[in-house]
Amino acid sequence: MQVRIYQPAKTAMQSGRGKAREWIVEFEPTSPRGPEPLMGWSGGGDTKEQVRLTFPSREEAVAYADKHGYSYTLVAAHDRRFKPKAYADNFKFDRFKPWTH
To answer: What is the reported pTM?
Structure first.
């Protein structure tokens, strides 16, 4: 069984890093999805696709995968680039575009 271990990016809807600090273990799909015969919705027979496990650290997520014999793909977390800004920078003399109303 193949799992993917990653740390999610922060949501674009908020400025905080709420649930982006934990590590996620997701199972890779083993069968393709297809349309259901009755309603035509997309569905599949693999229920492990719905399971998402969270861990506080990468080491704990990897230890869980090793303990249960899962082969895993580790996706490295992207480093956050922070550019400090000040409100006064909007009115600097050497700005790229002159400030207007």
So the answer is: 0.71
Q: CATH code at 21?
A: 3.30.160.190
The letter for the amino acid at 47 is T
Cα-to-chain-centroid distance, residue 32 = 22
Which residue in this structure is represented by tokens 């193949």?
2
Would you say how long the chain is, in residues?
101
58 assigned to some structural domain:
yes
> Which pLDDT tens digit goes with each residue over 67-80?
999 999 999 877 77
Cα–Cα distance, 4 to 64 (Å, whole number) = 12
Q: Look-up: residue for tokens 């506080």?
A: 56
**Surface-to-core class of residue 32, CB atoms within 10 Å of its CB (0-12 exposed, 13-18 middle, 19+ buried):** exposed
